[in-house]
Design brief:
By secondary structure, the chain is an alpha+beta fold. The protein has two helices and eight strands; from the N terminus they run E-E-H-E-E-E-E-H-E-E. It has a six-stranded antiparallel beta sheet, covered by helices on one side. A two-stranded antiparallel sheet has the order 1-2.
Length: about 140
């Protein structure tokens, strides 16, 4: 689960967080649940699946610049959420965004979620058609 100190704990591991180095991620057991997605102009991206400490599955994407974690995008897998474009609707994605915001409020308290190390937010992006939780590290 996400913590107020900026860590996304998956499989009971505290790996994803402020100042994570790409080499540390690659040497962690969490790397086995991820794959390299792309890299250019100093940026690299890894996608994976994990298990939150409440037992809920989630998808995550790590965005690193010059080998340092800058952003994490993650999506809890909610029951009834669209599993493909075939059953996607904007209404369903807005519901996912609502559930994401409820999860943040339950774990972190009321917004805003601005911290010395970075910011946490949940949003729906109509261009991509997805609802994600973002952790941006300063």
């Amino acid at each position: 689960m996400i913590t107020k100190d900026g860590y996304l704990d998956l499989f009971g591991l505290r790996v994803i967080g402020p100042n994570l180095l790409e080499t540390s991620f690659l040497n962690s057991s969490l790397y086995s649940s991820a794959q390299f997605d792309s890299g250019n102009d100093g940026w690299t991206r890894y996608r994976g699946e994990g298990l939150l400490d409440n037992g809920q599955e989630c998808l995550f994407t790590l965005f690193l610049y010059d080998g340092i974690l800058k952003t994490v995008s993650w999506q809890p897998k909610w029951q009834g959420a669209p599993a493909s474009w075939k059953d996607w609707t904007e209404e369903k994605q807005l519901k996912v965004n609502e559930l994401n915001n409820q999860l943040l409020a339950q774990v972190l308290g009321p917004p805003p979620y601005d911290y010395e190390w970075g910011r946490i937010s949940a949003s729906y992006d109509p261009r991509s058609g997805s609802s994600d939780i973002y952790v941006v590290y300063y």
